[in-house]
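Mods, move this if it's the wrong board.
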Amino acid sequence: MRLIAHRGFWLNPSEKNTSIAFARAFECGFGIETDFRDLNGRLVVSHDVPGSDALSIEDFITLYKATTNPGLMALNIKADGLQWLVKEMVKASGMKDYFVFDMSVPDMREYFSNGIPVFTRLSEYETPPAFLNASAGVWLDAFENEWYDIQVLNDLLKKKKLVAIVSPELHGRDHNYLWEFLKSNQLFKNPLISLCTDFPMEAKEYFHV
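Not the wrong board. C-alpha cells:
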C-alpha cells in the first residue's frame, strides 16, 4: 500500500497545500493529494476559489523537480476545462507517477482523449462509478460511513484497478476502524492500493510501509 498525504504533509491546518507541506511529504517519500484550479488563465494550487496568494504552478513544478523521491501524485481537479494546462504542467515537471480525479463526468472524457490517467469516483452516492472500464483506477470515498466491504475491494482488484482509499479523518471521522480493516484483511500489502490520509506518518508506522 502506498501513502498519499492529503494536501501535503502538514503539521497544522494553515500548512495545507503549501510549499512547506509538499516539501515535507517529498522528504518522507509520501505521495501527495493536491488541488488545482485556474486563475487568470494559469494553473494554481488551491482547494477553494483561488486568490493572489495561491501557490503558482511554477513554484509547484520547482518543488516537484527538486525532489529525488516523489511519491504517487493525486491531482484533484476542481474546475472544468483544465486538460491542456494540466498536460503542460505534467510535461514541464516530468511527472510520471500521477493521476487526476474529481472533475465532472463530462470533463473526464477530455482527460481520456489526452492520454491523462484518470481515477473515477466510487462512493455511497456514486454507484456505479462513471467510466470504470476506461479509468486507470478508483477513488474510493465514504462520506457518511464505511459503506463498502472486502467484496467491493476484491471486485475492483480483480479488474486490475488501482484503488485510492479516502481515510475517514478527511470527513471528520475516526480512522481506526478502517485502518484495522485494511490491516486485518492484509489489504495494506497490496501494491494496487493506496491510502489518502491526513496522518501519513502515523499510517507509515501503523502499517510498516
